[in-house]
Amino acid sequence: MGFINKLRSRWHEAETLLCVGLDPDPAKFPAHLAGDPDRLFRFCREIADATAQFACAFKPQIAYFSAHAGGEEALARLIAHIHAAHPDVPVILDAKRGDIGSTAEQYVAEAFVRFNADAVTLNPYMGRDSAAPFLAHAKRGCIFLCHTSNPGARDFQELVVDGEPLYQHVARTIASAWNGSGNCALVVGATFPEELRVIRELVGEMPLLVPGVGAQGGDVGAVVRNGRTADGTGLMINSSRGILYASRGEDFAQAAARAARALRDEINRCRKR
Ligand SMILES: O=c1ccn([C@@H]2O[C@H](COP(=O)(O)O)[C@@H](O)[C@H]2O)c(=O)[nH]1
């Protein structure tokens, strides 16, 4: 099953719009993992196993793995573990790739062959030819940065080009011209709920990956109100640090499960309003 259908099944059958972010930072790990050469994998595997039932997707951020010797091998093993143990939950590789076509082909092999991710985040700044090698894989998701969650999102993404802010042009172009295989989605920060509302109007039912709740302070109610589709889905609302570091003790995985369940439930309460 392709990424978009896997995601839709998860929204409807597991009744969750929560994306669990996997951003392992050894400085924040519980003491019993200190010095363990396999700590990135062990920490994330326990988090994934504890939170899978509450997740519509997992989103490992590649930098948290590639920053460490052996980290990319840990990431490959982690994704293989998720596919084997939680086959219904799609994996989004957060790598924000984008380059000329020949290099993009290598990034395609990285995301879809080496790591076997169901979807990958992409930077659309280099234009259509940089996205084409990814778009050709109709069963994999291509999730493009549109309006990011950080304060600097305003620097370029809100510049007015041909009478509209650049982020709106990006949303419109991807929805109308790049989504021929129906495998596109957009990243929109929870910290910009008004822009989220505008993007939802521009892109119809297209899935939106929404980071920025939890540690970055985005409002869950505003995200659901402004970002959901008519059937109350359409969103992958990501939380990473708020789930991963709910406890720094040996009970970290159980605490992560409680945090994931609480956020899943809060999102679902907002969907009913
Ligand atoms: O606009 C963006 C795009 C990506 N991210 C990523 O999402 C998570 C957020 O982590 P939290 O701990 O929940 O704040 C992280 O991997 C970012 O690289 C984003 O925050 N904003």
Automatic annotation (TrEMBL):
Q: Which domain of life is it from?
A: Bacteria
Entry keyword set: Decarboxylase, Lyase, Pyrimidine biosynthesis
Orotidine 5'-phosphate decarboxylase domain: which residues?
A: 17-256
Q: Does the keyword Acetylation apply?
A: no
A Pfam family annotated for this UniProt entry:
OMPdecase
Q: What is its EC number?
A: 4.1.1.23
List the GO molecular function terms.
Answer: orotidine-5'-phosphate decarboxylase activity
Leader sequence range is: none
Q: Does the keyword Lyase apply?
A: yes
Q: Please give the pathway this protein is involved in.
A: Pyrimidine metabolism; UMP biosynthesis via de novo pathway; UMP from orotate: step 2/2
Q: What class of enzyme is it?
A: lyase
Q: Which Gene3D superfamilies match?
A: Aldolase class I
Kindly provide the name given to this protein in its UniProt entry.
Answer: Orotidine 5'-phosphate decarboxylase
Gene assigned in the entry: pyrF
